Amino acid sequence: MELLALLVFGVALSLDGFAAGLAYGLQRIQLPFRSLIIICLTSGVAISISIGVGYAAAQVMAPELARVLGGILLIFLGIWILSQALRRITRRPLCIRIPPFGMVIQVLFEPLDADMDQSGTICSREALILGIALALDAFAAGFAIALSGLHSIFVPLFVTAGLFLLINLGILLGQRTSDVLSEKVNLLPGCLLIMLGMFRLM
Questions:
Q1: How far, CA to CA in Å, does 29 sit from each of 15, 21, 67, 71, 86?
Q2: How far apart are CA 201 and CA 75, in angstroms?
C-alpha cells in the first residue's frame, strides 16, 4: 500500500509538469535539456527539504495526530490545486505585482508566462522560475505526506523522475493534440491529492 501511495503521490506532483509540457508543445516552445534538468532538480530539492521538515514535525506529535493532520493537509492542498485548475479553465485573468514572487505565482497559474522574453525557448533563468512555481505545490505536499507517516527517501526520486518523463511526454503530445486535453489534465493533480489524503486518513 505504501508503494501505491508513492506512485499516486509522484504522479500527482508530476502532472503539473505534464500540463506545462502540453502547453509548450502546443505553442512549439522549446525546452532545452539543461532547462528541463533545472526544473526537475528544483522540485526534487524542494520536496526533499519539505519531507525533512515534515518528518521532524511528526517526531514531536503523537503518531495518530500527525497522520490525521497530514491527511487533512493533503486534502486541503488538493482542493487548492483543483481551484487553480478551475481558474485556468475559466480563463480568469490573474496579474500578481508583488516582486520577486509575483512572476513565480503567475507562472504557477499560466506556464506559458515562463517564456518571459517570448523567444520560443525556455532559458535557464526562466526554467528556474518555472521550477520554483512547480515546487510550491511540491513543498507543501512533501510536508503533508511526511507528516502523515510516508517519508520514504524514494519520494523525491519519484517526483523528480516523474517530472522529467511527464514534461517530455507532455511536449510530445502537445505537438499532436489540442488544448482540451491540457485543461482536463489540470484537474487530475488536485483530485489525486484529495484521494491520497483520504487514503492516509483511513
A1: 18, 9, 42, 37, 24
A2: 10
What is the DSSP secondary-structure string of the chain? -HHHHHHHHHHHHHHHHHHHHHHHHHTT-B--HHHHHHHHHHHHHHHHHHHHHHHHHHHTS-HHHHHHHHHHHHHHHHHHHHHHHHHHHTT-------TTHHHHHHHHH-GGGG-TT-SSB--HHHHHHHHHHHHHHHHHHHHHHHHTT---THHHHHHHHHHHHHHHHHHHHHTTS-HHHHHHHHHHHHHHHHHHHHHHH-
pLDDT digits (tens, 9 = 90+) for 54-67: 888 888 888 888 88
Residue 121's DSSP bridge partners are 30
The contacts of residue 51 (CB under 8 Å, 6+ apart) are: 142, 143, 145, 146, 151, 155, 156
Instruction: For residue 95, give the C-alpha cell.
Output: 496579474
Q: What is the pLDDT of residue 37?
A: 92
In this prediction the pTM is 0.75
124 vs 12: CA distance, rounded Å: 25
All three cell numbers of 202, joined, read 483511513
C-alpha cell read off for 47: 520536496
Using alpha carbons, select from 139, 136, 137, 151 the residue that is nearest to residue 58. 151
Rounded Cα gap, residues 103 and 196, in angstroms = 30
- Which grid cell is 79? 482542493
Q: Which residue do the cell numbers 491529492 mark?
A: 193
